[in-house]
Amino acid sequence: MLQTINFAHRGASAYCPENTMAAFRKALELGATGIETDVQRTADGRLVLIHDESLQRTTGDPRLVQNISFDELAGLDAGSWFESSFSGERVPALDELLELIQNTDIILNLELKNGIVLYPGMEEEVIRAVRSFGMSGQVVISSFNHYSLALCKQLAPEIRTGILYMEGLYRPWEYAATLKADALHAFHYAVLPEWVQEAAGQGIHYHPFTVNEEKEMERLLSCGVSGIITDYPDRLNDVMKRGGAGAP
């Protein structure tokens, strides 16, 4: 049995400010085998890693990511909101994370945040960056914008895609096949053992999010999911080491 991928959600975001290099490095220290992060684009065309369209929550700046230059963004503090010891952490560029994990076995889940701000051309730009680092086999591109995922698969059939969705998608493995998607990134309540088995029979993997309670980790591992997205990669590691399904 393949080991379930331990995706650190926005890095080790329970311990460090989300989507910062500190969070990504901490995830590796805590035994994550995957990293999940969010991609947006600055006014001058740089791909950066941040969840919210607005900078307010994590930097205190009221502007949108799409309306700020990369140099201006680099001057903002993205760590102090979490804890004063992280003062000076910045919103990183995608290239920084690609460089960090380029020579590792870490699986990188890049969520394109193109549902509210569409960022035309982002798909091509992300694919170009991933290919430039020779990392097509290490990346899963996910999004709630399923038109974007279909385009990604057309542009780069070799890069895996994952469909993000909440509850209630009927027979999602059949829907995934229409997009040629490889995985279902479902809200964790929308995952049952029979669905995981049905999807696996169609070659579709489940990577549920965001799972922080040990009992729910155990349940999902027993379902046979291929990956779990969590703020606590150390906690998931411990559950797997205690003998949960998917443990090495």
TrEMBL record:
It comes from Paenibacillus soyae. PROSITE patterns: GP_PDE. InterPro entries: GP_PDE_dom, PLC-like_Pdiesterase_TIM-brl. Residues 4-240 form the GP-PDE domain. GO terms for molecular function: phosphoric diester hydrolase activity. Pfam families: GDPD. This is Glycerophosphodiester phosphodiesterase. GO terms for biological process: lipid metabolic process. Signal peptide: none annotated.
